[in-house]
Structure formats: structure tokens, C-alpha cells
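Sample 3 of the quickstart, ligand iron/sulfur cluster:
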Amino acid sequence: MSKSSILDYTKDELSKIIKPSFRAKQLYEWVYKKYVNSFDEMKNLPLELREELKNNYNLIPLKSAYIEKSKDGSKKYLFMLEDGKTVESVLLPMKKEKYDDDGNLIHQTRYTICISSQVGCKIGCSFCLTGKSGFLRNLTPGEITSQVLMIKKDNNIAENRRVNIVFMGMGEPLDNLENVKKAVEIFSDPLGLAISPRRQTISTSGLSSQIKKLGEMNLGVLLAISLHAVDDELREQLMPINKAYNIESIINAVKEFPVDARKRVMFEYLVIKDLNDDIKSAKKLVKLLHGIKAKVNLIFFNPHEGSEYKRPEVKDVLGFQDYLIKHGVLCTIRESKGLDISAACGQLKDRKGK
Ligand code: SAH
Ligand code: SF4
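Result:
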């Protein structure tokens, strides 16, 4: 059996494994701040400890298997895990660097990293390639956090640069809640990746009971709901999970979720031609979100081979957005980043992975 990764542990757990406990802090620093690739490089750890760690644990539990670069600057990574399975992550530069007339940097590029939480997914949404390929296994905390670590390293993103994390890659994060929780803790640890929970968004297909649990954990993360439809009939067709957790149950769970005073719950709405792109749906959506501090993010459905659905017309998406805004609902349209590469998650893996 292969060894587990030392990156699966939060700092508290690690300080129970490695004695004395300050060694855990040192190890954290080597991994998350100094980006080392081996135990041998951890020079301030005693040789004996380094040997012991080497014999019992792996360090980084995945390796880069394929990278696709888009013209718009986004980069899609296919990572191979120890057991040969693969997952995807995406680096999305959100705003370009800006300089003033004298050539001084005004603001740096902001990065968002989209990560996976499972190999495959059990939820089986009919529009999603990941869902179609079925479920293989949960990712461990270290396999989740290493996606960010590897991408930061690969792009020379300094350890103290702010990045945003979105759990919008492959898998349903709330179906792997314990490991996702640990990953959030490792991300948030000032000695770990030092990413504030308010820069971490967990996207879910709407497992209402798990949304409740996540809320009770009070991690401070942001919540995104993949709503995609405003009536249960259509939602069941798109997302079979709606039979177990219908729209009403999701809305109720969201209403109880702790939201930072300056933040909102994001509702993702995949716009599909002739299915949910009409003003009647927009109207229902406004009603549904009444009383919730919400923000809607419209996503163009991105067709893939064999998909039965079609990309919506730009004018219909703009019309939908216009209606929401006019009725007091904040609404953005997700830029279709990486359209020239395999944009929606699951598409790179479909071509290159196992
Ligand atoms: N399982 C979670 C986590 C993200 S899923 C969830 O469903 O919320 C991946 C994201 O990709 C979702 O927002 C989903 O709506 C989007 N997605 C899946 N297939 C897509 C497609 N063909 N075109 C555009 N977006 C797609
Ligand atoms: Fe799973 Fe999300 Fe894809 Fe649905 S959209 S199958 S929940 S990854």
C-alpha cells in the first residue's frame, strides 16, 4: 500500500505526530512558504526526523500530468494522484497587471484557483461531463490543498500573494465534507497557505443537510449554490439530486447559513438555450431570492461532445441579467475563460486523463 501524505494533516494534527510540536510549524513553513519538494531540503529538521518522515510519508501527493494554456491567460492543469487517477484544476488570472504612466505597478494580477474535491462525482448532473463519468473516490485534504500549492509553484506566485480559491472543479465538495473542512483549515492557517476563508468559495449542487452542517462548522467560507433552474421539474431533469433536496429545502438551508456582513451567497445559474433562458424564469428567480443576500452568476452552458443541450444566445443572457438587475438582484455573467481550451471541468480529463 502506498504511504499517505504528510500534507493531509492540519497543523494541530501534525503537532501530535511530530514531537516536539514546534517541528510541525517548521515543516509547514518548508512546505507552504518555501515550496520545497522533498523532506531532505528541510534543513532545520534533525536528520533522524527527516529519515523517519521519509520512511512513513509522502510529501506532495500529486504531480502535474498535462497543462493547457488559453489565449486569455487561464491555465488548466491535469494532476495525477499516487494511484494514477487524475483531477483538474484551473488558474484564472482575474485582472491584468496595471502600470501608471511612469511604469510603476498600480495593481498586481489577481488569481483565482479552481480546484477539485473528488475524482468524478456521484451527483450525475445531465449537463456535466464530470457527472457523466461517475464517481471514483474522495480526495484527501492534502490532494485538495496540493492543487493550489503546485499551481502557485508552477507560476512563481509568491507565497504571500493573495489568491482566491473556488471549489468549482470536479466533484461535490459537500459530499466530501470532512476532507474539505480540513483543506479549508490548512488553506486558512497563517503558517499554511494563509488564504482567508473569505477568499474561499464552496460550490454545491445543493445538499441541504450538508449546507446546514457546513454552516454549523462556522469556517467563514463563502457559499455558492448551483441552482440552474427555478422549478423542481426542470431542476430534476438537470440535477437528479433535486429529488432528494428540492429548491425549497435549499433556499431554507441558505437562509440559515452564516454570511459575513459584507458578503453574499452566490447562486450559479447555468443558462441553457430554450430551457431556462427566458424572462419567465428570471421573474421566478427574483421571487425565489427574495429576502436573501444573494448574487447571481450567469454561466453560458458550454457544449461538449454528445451533450444534448445548447449554448444560449448572448442577447438572451443579457436580457436575463438585465431583468434581474432591474428588479434589485445583483447579477454578473461569468466570463467564459479558457473557451479555446477545454473550458468546463471534466473536459480536459475526458481527453487526456484516466
Ligand atoms: N459540484 C459542485 C462543484 C462545482 S461543479 C457544484 O455543482 O456546484 C462544476 C461547475 O461547472 C458547476 O458550476 C457547473 O455548473 C459547471 N459546469 C458543469 N458542466 C458545465 C458545462 N457544460 N458548461 C458550463 N459550466 C458547466
Ligand atoms: Fe457533480 Fe457539480 Fe458536475 Fe453536478 S455539476 S455532476 S454536482 S461536479
